[in-house]
């Protein structure tokens, strides 16, 4: 899976909308939408999203199995 697909999966598992993830992470909702639709996020954005979703960057890179 690509990073955007994993971000969306983790976000949905936490019952978060893109707006809620944006509010919690400080990343614009439009950026989250762009990433979920296939754009490659920067390392800094990956770190912020991982922290907000309480997962590792490895999870977002697909190097670790998706957890509940």
Task: Write structural notes for this entry.
- The chain is mainly α.
- The protein has one domain: lambda repressor-like DNA-binding domains (434 Repressor (Amino-terminal Domain), Orthogonal Bundle).
- Helices cover 63% and strands 0% of the residues.
- The protein is built from five helices and no strands.
- The chain has helices at 3-13, 18-25, 29-36, 43-53, 57-61.
- Helix 1 (3-13) crosses helix 3.
- The longest helix has 11 residues, at 3-13.
- It is globular, with a radius of gyration of 10 Å.
- It starts with a helix and ends in a 7-residue tail after the last helix.
- The model has no long low-confidence stretch (mean pLDDT 91).
SSE diagram, text form:
Elements: H1 3-13, H2 18-25, H3 29-36, H4 43-53, H5 57-61
Helix pairs in contact: 1-3
- What value does the Rg take, in angstroms? 10 Å
Specify the CATH architecture: Orthogonal Bundle
Largest sheet: none
Low-confidence stretches: none
Briefly note the CATH topology name. 434 Repressor (Amino-terminal Domain)
Mean pLDDT: 91
Secondary-structure content class: mainly alpha
What are the secondary-structure elements, in order, as H or E? HHHHH
Work out the helicity level.
55-70%
Quaternary assembly: single chain
Shape field: globular
Q: Tell me the number of structural domains.
A: 1
What would CATH call the homologous superfamily? lambda repressor-like DNA-binding domains
The total strand number stands at: 0
CATH class: Mainly Alpha
Indicate the proportion of strand residues: under 5%
Distance between the termini: 16 Å
- Helix segment tally: 5
């Amino acid at each position: 899976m690509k990073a955007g697909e994993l971000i969306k999966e983790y976000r949905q598992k936490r019952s978060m909308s893109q707006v809620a993830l944006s509010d919690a992470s400080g990343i614009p909702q439009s950026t989250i939408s762009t990433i979920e639709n296939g754009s490659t996020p920067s390392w800094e954005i990956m770190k912020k999203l991982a922290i907000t979703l309480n997962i590792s960057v490895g999870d977002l890179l697909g190097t670790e199995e998706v957890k509940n």
